Request: fold
Amino acid sequence: MVIATKKGLARVQELYQDRPQRVKELKAEGKKIIGYLCIYPVTEMMTALDIVPYRVLGDMRESITKADAYLPPVVCPFLRSCLDQGLKGKYDFLDGMVTSHICDVGSSLSGIWHYTVKTPFHYNIDTPHTVHETALNQTKGVMKAFQKALEDFAGKKITNAKLKKAIILHNEQRALVREAYELKKQDPPLISGAETLKTIKVIQSIPVAEGNALLRDIISEVKTRKNKPAKKNARLLVWGSILDDTPLIEMIESLDANVVMDDTCVGSRPFFDDVKITPDPIDGLAQHYLVDIKCPRTFRARDFYAAKKNYMEDLKTRFSYLSDYAREWKANGVILQSVRYCDTHGYEVPQVRDYLREIDLPGIYLEHDYTVGALAPLKTRVQGFLEIIG
Amino acid sequence: MTQEVKTRPLNRLKSMYALRAEVDKMYQVGGEAKAKGRPVAWVMLEGWANPILNAMDVITVYPENYSSLCAAQKLAGPFLERAETEGYPTHLCGYARACVGYSARMVELDGQIPPEAPAGGMPRPNLLISSAEVCDARFKWFQSLGRYFDAPVWTLESPSPNARESLTPGTYERNTQFLINEIRQFVVFLEKLLGKKMEWDKLDFTSDGTNEINRLRWEINQLRKARPCPMHTRDFWSVMSAALYRGAADPTVIVDGNQKMYDEVKYRVDHGIAAINRPEKYRMSFEGLAPWHSLSFLDDLADRGWNFVCESAYSPGRPVVIDLSKVSDPIERYVRKRYRSLASAIEIEFGPEEAPKVKEEIMREGTSYRLRLKHIRDYQCDGVVLHVLLSCRAASSGLSLFSDQLLDVYKVPSLIIEGDIIDTSLFNPVESLKKAEAFEDTMDHYKKVRKNLGFEW
Reply:
């Protein structure tokens, strides 16, 4: 067994620069590694089978050269980059790939990945689009089918006891992430936005138990370290589509601002609600993955049966957690950002802005194309925004 | 000197005009119904919702169709611009953005139809029925309309498994039950909202009408396999609206119109009459959604002998033949009449010899070229036009792989044309026509390749 020599944030930096390092070691020891796209695949089931879940991400620092043949430039550049990485052999260590119906392109990518990258095990979870009661029941059925496919691949069964144990382990990680985010409530925050993103990315690239140990080290380290982030005038909340690398956050934090909170999927989004422990573990998992995770890909409303819609009440139902985040983390501005061609976030932007106006929280919308080079003009806009919010 | 009078490139079907007129009536009926106080719903496609809404006496209009109508009349521009000023990114669905712009204008006019709206406009909705079928825009767009209307929004769920998972035992029945339960919940919502009970006989009438319309459309499409092809894609698109966006129109009228169209197309087949008034040099498929603002581009291609014989969007599936005499639940009957399993579809379409190969391919590779490319083989296409849309991920994301497989397996080349369903500024007809002219050499080359390899066409 390989022993990691670095700890805490140094270990995060090491794995951030060579993300598959640890899973490749584990693979050499005989472990199975399964990649997953987005935050909807049920990773607890992989852990219950002693399979390491590994988040599939893109690389915004590398040009897309191979994916062009399969996905046109008018679709999400993040997903194009994921496929590009797959086609370049960067995910060859994976024993399987699990996707879900996250969005139109994500669903399409699932089939294209299966056909072109040819990861040995492949499964697409057809997650419903609403939180209707019928959709929740459907999610349970869909999850059971996924469990069966995973068991067939692993050649062993997931007992309720094993699944419950895995849920507890994953909940422990969720709690530790929340504990780390608590440290960002201080002024200045004890951990920067860029460090937070790197940490989340890394814990999604190693076994959950190892991620939990790493999080404990980080929490302990940042509480006592001297080189903590500097105090800045702006404390920002970043909302939006996937950000799986630090350049945008680093650009913001190079100015007079700290990113103290986020609502993104390589950020707080998968970690801020626990999976409830239920007699049938599938019940808790379905509730978590369909209802509790707040991503625009799911249709929500205040009351589906209401005869009249109250727009502002509806927005409160959908976005009041953002107000909670801003209040608790003392954010005085919001950066709404989205990768270009992300439809689900694109439709959401005007509505989030309406909500922010209602709670008197200033916000700015940035659209980017998932490249480092395109950040320069955005910097000027962020600077202007910081001047406005004082 | 005598001057040759050149006929129009397209030989339009006469039966098309009556069906097309039914769609225009939809907006008129919607406006009149609204004036009389009847509830009006904005709906996505015919889908699962329309027969139910019609059975509940709700008048239905279709913003998706209305946006394409605005585009066809080159009147969508101001609505698109308005959506942009409302904060909606320009890459979002053109149908949705035109509708958002229209809605914003309507609010500005205290709920009145904007005077610049073509075809009488869409009346203010009492309810919005979105759908999880086909693409994300269908529910995100209607959710966005909450900014402009206080109408309740219901998103009708629909399963969308990938091919491989569709073939996994248990998936079809689970998804059937999901649809049944979801529609039951939808009916409860409508009954509560409208204060009246569903009359199940009426649902049988409206849904049987839909099924009969689709059966005839499928039969008509089968006739298009003839050489020369008797019905052009432009006619298919023109009458498609009367089926998929028929609103509250009496289904028997649409059935009658489609029967007349079937008779006319059959007559053409029997008498060797083509859909274009030029020799059929190239049999084409149109992959993707239509450039509604520039349909005459296809006339220019017809002038060069390009006959569009099939298309990837809006095609009806083979009718489901199933004995439901023992099923007493009307919702279950409704679902099972229309929802076919992929396994069953493959067995019927490919027969006992080829079907197992198709299924095996799907389980192994996640997709089957035989399934994806079947219409190209059936209609013996010489080339396809891939319409890559800036504003539609659902229609564009699979085109590149399709094109690769098509050339690889059937030696049929693709012409990529970038554009949009609504936004004229994204389409360059002159450049596209030049590309098309050059593409003819490629099609000629692959005709020879196919011949040398012993293909049927």
Remarks:
- The mean pLDDT of chain A is 96.
